[in-house]
Amino acid sequence: MSEQMVARDKPSAVIATMFIATIFGLGALAVVAAGLTIPIPGTDVVTDPRELFATIGAALTGPIGGVIVGILAGIREPVVVLPSVIAHVLGGLWMGFAYRLLVYERLQTPRRFAGWAALVLAYYYLIVVPGFVIGQAITLPASALQISALWAFLRETYVTIAVGATPEALLTATVTTLVLIAVPRKYHRPLWGGNGKRPRYIAVPDKRVERRPGTGEAREFPPSVYSYGHNAEPRRGLAAGTVELARHIKGTLAWRLVILLTLMSFLPIAVMVIFVRHTVAEALIALESRDTLMQARQLATEVPLLADEAVIQDLLASSSDEHRTSFIAGRDGQPMVLPPNIAASAIALASLTPNTLRNVLSGREGTTSEKDSGVIVAYSPIPRTDAVAVIVMDGSAVADSIQRMESATFVQLGASLLIISIVGGALIWLVMGPIRSLTRAAGQIGAGNFEIEIDPSEMEGELAVLATAFAGMTRQLRESYDTLERRVADRTQELATLNSISAVVSRSLDLAEVLQAAVDRTLEIVNLEVGGAYRLDEETRSLTLLGHRGISEEFAQQATYLAQEKGIVLPGLREGQTVVVREGDPAFEALSSCLERERLKTLVAVPLMAKGKAVGLIVLATRTERQLSAQELSLLAAIGQQVGVAVENARLYEQAEEAAVAAERSRLARDLHDAVTQTLFSASLIAEVLPRLWERSPVEGRRRLEELRQLTRGALAEMRSLLLELRPSTLTEAAPGELLRQLAEATSGRARVPVSVTVEGQAPMPPDVKIAFYRIAQETLNNIAKHANASQVFMSLNCRPDSVELRVSDDGRGFDRSRVSSEHLGLGIMNERAEAIGATLSITSQPGHGTQVLVRWTEAQGGKANV
Amino acid sequence: MSETNPIRVLIVDDHAVVRSGLSAFLMAFEDLELVGEAASGAEALRLCAERRPDVVLMDLVMPEMDGAAATRAIRQAFPSAQVIALTSFKEEGLVQAALQAGAIGYLLKNVSADELAGAIKSARLGRPTLSPEAAAALIQTATRTATPGFDLTDREREVLALMIEGLNNPDIAERLVVSRSTVKFHVSSILSKLGVSSRTEAVALALQNHLVN
Questions:
Q1: What is the value of ipTM here, to two decimals?
Q2: How would residue A91 be classed by pLDDT, with cut points 50, 70 and 90?
Q3: Which residues in chain A have their CB less than 8 angstroms from residue B114's CB?
Q4: Do domains A276-402 and A506-727 have the same CATH topology?
Q5: Are residues B164 and B119 in the same domain?
């Protein structure tokens, strides 16, 4: 109910709050008006439960509500109205402010309960009682207002009222605290002050670490359950244990029910007490009145028979005792005859109310009881006289017996209250037992422990339904949790597998290596024994075997051929589908002659996909019956994707390499072609004019003939070089010395420079080293032919088993290394070639002093470079 | 013919082997005289000033100063010297460049000695000689139909460039800040001027003929 009414500035909410305050105030007023006073056992103090309404009402509705409650609670005080109103209004203000600001917003249960009790005690001793005292001081006559007297008055009044109010204060504090404990926490919120300020709770996440049975592996659960409290650290010790127990108990539903039961039994008992007291008191008074009237009547009949006053006095004395006084009153209402030793003044006829006196003198017999003083007066007119026999009985006789009865009743009621609470509590505890176990189970599940079991057979009725449903939910939770865990594990495994595949296949850019690694790893993963990997030629759609395991290459080739012929694998490749072929399938029968030889039972063809196209195929096979799960197939498909990318990478790399090689080759071919053209042009010119030259000068003719011979030899050498460029495999086959001589001849033919070649050692060298040396020599000679203007070139090659050395030197014009960038003269390319095989290249040159080129390769360097 | 002065010839070629062959050739003819050999355009210019040749045999593709540039420089500085391009290339562009630079002959390095001698003598008299291949290249240039698209307006070229970028009409309209119908008009005009029926053909043709930058 509080939720809608809390907004501070909504008039409707304010009015609602005022309304609730009025209800509480009227409750307090009704308590007083109905005279629902409760004598506190063992004391003379009579109290009433209006402060229960006043405190709770004011705390709930705030200061303004408190004022309303205070006015209504204080207005009906029998004697002292103003002090009472002042005291209660102050009290209402106090509870209104203090509850929200000091208790609700600052203290969390269970401290809040202690705070509340303190608040109520302060309400009594600091607010209401002083309020009364001040109120009374205000009503004092002006003459009493002397400082010292006033101080004494205030002090004495305070002490008197405070002492008298103590039992009531304790009772009120206890009962209201119990109410606070019993109502759910959400009703603790005051209705005033708006929503702005939330209670200052500290959220402490319950982190839970659990160890798996068996492995002992620790698992930390996320803080799925939050509890509110100030204790981030677990408490230790007895006191802490008690606090924990109290915290546990106050939170349980059973405990609340016990308190509510006790409170509810308390209320009818209190009402009963008051009504019984009234009835009993009235009955006692009636009895006493009749008794007294009989005596008065007796007195009235006996008195006229006795003439002697002394005898009458004796008679009067005998019918008097400590509580009652018998006497004869005259018409004027004055005592005529009194018992001896009682003074006329002691007969408090004057203290009787005029009403009583009128009754006494009415000439009729009867009884009158005075409410205020508790005095009972019985009277009977004495026949034939004007006198009346009167018996006045003070109230204490009746009051004593009432009090005795009340005390007995209170003890009995208190005992029965206790018994009800205990028995009721025990019953509730028993009834709540299954709920408690359900709650515990729910708590465990909330904390992530799905192993908890609930036995619904122990429960009945709604609880059995609840428990059955709960057990079902727990089982489902457990199952779905297990499934989830298994799925995560599977997925993790799958990812790890793919990762390892990816790692293996990305280690190399060599297609055969990639595919062999892929086959090996895939077989390991799916636990099959036979496999082959193929590259798919994009144009011819034919497969090339590049890696295999568990079968001979011969068989793999044969199977590939057969499978292609029968058109078995290609449709799968086109679709990018993994194809499984089992014994009995048409596809299997088509290959049966081949498969049976190797006793293969099941084939799986996994296309290797890149950019949505098949680039290859991995075929796995097994010699045992083997069903592949959907999961394994999807894993294989994923592997196919992964390996496909690696294949595509390798292919692109190959292509790029080929393109680079082709570009360089065509450049060289163009250069050579150009050079051959020049040489042949020159040769043909010379040949054409040679007869004429010879005629003019045989010496010159002979020289030119020799030149012609050199030119044609050079052209031939260049043609051979050209062939080498067009068919690079011959380059690796030819002897290094031969290659250099050919280069030398071509150069000397073209550049008209004699090139001498010396070759030492016959040790074979690795193909890549040979090619690199050839290219470097070629580039060097090209440079000499084009730029050096040399008259002599020396070239020497030294082939040792573990090292190769090439020297080329000329006597040309040389160049300044600092003024020639590496892009010029092909120096950059020469350097790159040397670096690629791990050789060292040094070029020394000075303008006018020729150029020396030295390339040196050693096994160790080469080995290092290949790593 | 011995009473007339021999024709002074300068050889320019970066290949030593060619220079050697040409020197042998010149030696065989009495009326031709070798006055110098140069391996580059710059050297040729220097030797021209020094030796005053009547005819220069000029290779075209050379490092440093190329043949066409050297020819132009020689013809400017020494108008009396005639230049014959002697090269192994018969590409149209080279032929045109050489002739525009002022060469009087264009011969390929498959020319016979007699033909070469005749060409040198003709050049001395101011008569041009073209090798059949060079003549064919020139004829081809002259007779080839005009490159399509030369009559495109600037705006049409702009539109064509955007078409090559792959933009459609609305995009082009947005880029050029004109209406779509204007763009459509331009495009159809481009198609008709290029004599093609589709955008794709237009783009292909434009790329082949470098119609736009």
A1: 0.72
A2: very high
A3: 688
A4: yes
A5: no
